[in-house]
Design a protein that fits this description.
By secondary structure, the protein is an all-alpha fold. It has two helices and no strands.
């Protein structure tokens, strides 16, 4: 796939590097602004409970 992308991008080395950077930036922006916020709602990371037993509670001095 990377070889096909490299052959498909226009221009010489500089043009291909700029197209690669642009494509990478677009994919990362799509992930961070669309995919990850949608998937975060499905993950249980916000449902965390930590129970402290009474014997382990800090002492008031």
């Amino acid at each position: 796939m990377y070889g096909w992308l490299w052959r498909t991008f226009p221009g010489g080395l500089v043009g291909k590097l700029l197209c690669s950077l642009l494509l990478t930036t677009a994919v990362l922006a799509l992930l961070f602004f669309v995919v990850f916020p949608h998937v975060e709602q499905l993950l249980p990371y916000q449902d965390v409970n930590v129970d402290v037993p009474q014997s382990a509670a800090p002492l008031d001095v």
